[in-house]
Amino acid sequence: MPSSFRGLILLALLAFMLAACSAPEAPRFNAANMTGVEYGKDLRMQDADGKERTLADFRGKVVMIFFGFTQCPDVCPTALSRAVAVRGMLGEDAKKMQMVFITVDPERDTPEVLRAYMLAFDPDFVALHAPLARTAEIAKSFNVFYQKVPTGDSYTMDHTATSFVFDPTGRLRLAVPHNMPPELIAADIKTLLATTR
Amino acid sequence: MHRFVTATVLSLAMSLPAWAQVSIDDPWVRATVPQQRATGAFMQIRSAVDARLVEARSPAAAVVEIHEMKMENDVMKMRAVPALDLPAGQTVELKPGGYHVMLIDLKAQVKEGDVVPLTLVVEGKDGKREEIALDAPARPLNQPMQHQHGKPHKMH
Fold it and tell me: Which of A51, A54, B3, B33 has the greatest number of beta carbons closer than 10 A?
């Protein structure tokens, strides 16, 4: 290795260390840090009351988004129950957290079903739906996978079970695994509320 | 609440008739909202001898399947399985995050507190089948994954 190149590496390392020391400590999270990744930029869907919603509607709140379908017996109700638990743990800050459920099965998840489904968990939860083609675009913009899988005379849906968390300024910050306990998510949301300027 | 259902399977493969027991513990069904056409049933099954759960039926749904839920690269996949092994003496849990009995094309909304009749068909190694009837109460839709049997999570 030429010595000038080695010198360059040393210099870069030194610069990096200096930058790391002078920068304010970056917040640490339990969930995967997605800061800088731009998912869901053009999120625009109807809620169960037919009102058009975008992420901008929820400025000032931490927004947690989960893609699912209501005929799902397992991971979807579990994710929504977990969000109920998270809000319970946030206490006063619960009003600064918005849970958003996006259906990947708009053919069966009519606004009526979605409204009743959200009410069964938390009346403050918002469910969003769009026609099939638009749903596919939105999912793609979150790197979310889903597909119909026939079973019997019916079908079920494979889908990404990750929840996405946006900070109060509307920036994507976290990807939460389906099995992360509510305590850890509540701690992350408190960190986001405390550190987002 | 604990319901205990015991069934007997007569094994003809042995020289002496052996009495096998299949017990079902803590069965429950997740309640639904109006127009929701599917839900899951959960329980613990224990068979004294090697056996398989090969079929489930219910008057509450047109189609009943045994499903396995799996996570692959953060993607949730649900698939019907032809049978669920019940190894001798082991408790096999049908619970959120694993197996469930899938009730498809529900005939009516399942409300919290409703009792959903289920029939399980268990097949012994000798191919003999036994039917076990049980009643699964409906728990609220927002029943968390860790219900009264679960341990609380610890903060790290």
Answer: B33
Q: Chain B: residue nearest A152 by CA?
A: B63
How many structural domains comprise chain A?
1
Give CATH for domain B4-139: 2.60.40.1890
Quick check: A74 and B63 CB within 8 A?
no
Q: Which of A41, A4, A7 is nearest to A170 (CA)?
A: A41
In the block, tokens 């289920």 appear at B118
Domain of A113, in residue numbers: 29-195
Cα separation, B102 vs B47, whole angstroms: 21
Interchain contact, A158 vs B80, CB within 8 Å: no
> What is the ipTM for the molecules in this complex?
0.80
Nearest residue on chain A to B64, alpha-carbon basis: A152
Structure confidence at residue A28 (pLDDT): 94
Indicate yes or no: CB of B141 within 8 angstroms of CB of A120. yes
Record the pTM. Answer: 0.83
- DSSP 8-state assignment for residue B151: P
Q: How far is A15 from chain B (nearest CA, A)?
A: 34
